[in-house]
Amino acid sequence: MILKFMGIKYGIMLILVLFIISLAGIEAYQGSLFYYAIFDLSWLAILFTALCCSQTYVIFYIQIMLFLGFWAKLMACLILKVPFIEPTGYWSSNFSSASWDQVLWVSSLAACAILAVNTLFFFCTKNKTKKANKSSAPLWYTKHHNLAWSLILFLGFLTNAINIFFHISITGLRPQLVLPFHLNAVIVWIMALAIPLLMAAFLGWDQSLGQKKNRFYSVCLLAFITSLSSLSRSVYLFWTLPYIIIVLSNLNFSLTKALVWHHRKLIFSFIGYALLSLILVSMGRSYYFAQYHSPSFIGQTSKQLSQLKKLFIGRWVGVEGVMATTAFPQSGWNFFKKGIMEKPSVGDIGIYTREVLKPNNYKNTKKTMFSSLPGLVSILNYTNSPSVVFWGMASICFLLCCFELIIYLALNNKFLLAQLGLILGYWCVSGLNIPYLGVVNLIECLFIPVLLCLINLCYNWLMKFWTKSPIRLKHQELPE
């Protein structure tokens, strides 16, 4: 199940180029060259293993997201003087070089933990993942695939319509309607987890390439609509990126002009939806938030466009969280226990934004709600213990890899694994703002593969029972 996006030779060349670039940041770094070198080499090793020998989809996404959140962000700050976008709480430019060294040391240990898990998982699974890559569709999907797609598209359009009118889940806005029996959470679960995972599983089970292409248009359309309804620029990318990853890993980045031209309609549609969603979501966010924060629509639009330029590096969770938790004066085991045991309430922005980032610029109102995400590395750093960061990161990453392996052996669906890996990777990197809620979200995510396995078992049992049913046998014995 090794993912290989480029050859070892090209991977080494890329790392050498980035290493040479990173040397330009030494002069601006305020701490020890030793910790800078460890940080640099460990995160470049993360990128190399991500592109050349990731053992699972989830470990691939974790490595890429954290590389952008740690190495790319720090180098952009040191070399290009790009300011950190996320607040850093009690951290200030006057902090000592020892504080910077502590930040880079904790970050490096997190990288080493991921490298250790990737290596360990290789030796643990090298003889257990030799299944055929081609997934075999279950009987119920083979017979009812058109109905399955019709239902999932109807459900997607319905939940998005509800979200547009009642603001159940819109980035930065509080819900306008709180439904009983936690139905708000059910709608969000359907939109954010159930639909993309089910569509990925269905695409993986489609045997015809033409059928896959036609239904990928439906995925792009629904991802585009969901991106607009939730005012999230990342939704479209997160729904469609796993399929691009599958294609690139299969081709080993050897795209030819003939191949691109043959699939030009699909490629142009994908890119068109992506650009349109970025533009329209940015305009929508400007419109909504200008009503609550600024009378100048033009000024707000300019601010949104400025944020759009920083989207590909600035949005990733990483080094700012470690800076904030390192500087937080109450860090320790007591605060760590308080953070992981905290239960969420309606409109709660989380203990990280509320206490660790207490000196921040968030101005929430009755209509809006903004918070910052700490990420798993920063939550583990609540303890102020580098060893907890290493072992905690290693344990959780290994657990997620085990989940992916079990689902791989149970369903053997590469498309589902790619989508699930992205969701689990994002959950690990930035989905643990409130740990209690993060555990609930993990269970909700894993429920879909379990549900698919149960459907397969129940349908096969019913068909087996029906073929042995006395009524069916009697009908078969009747003369024509």
From TrEMBL:
Keyword Membrane in annotation: yes
Keywords, in A-Z order: Membrane, Transmembrane, Transmembrane helix
Signal peptide positions on this chain: none
UniProt organism field: Legionella gratiana
Spans traversing the lipid bilayer: 7-26, 32-51, 58-84, 104-125, 146-169, 181-203, 215-231, 237-255, 267-288, 388-408, 415-434, 440-462
The protein, known as: Uncharacterized protein
Tree of life domain: Bacteria
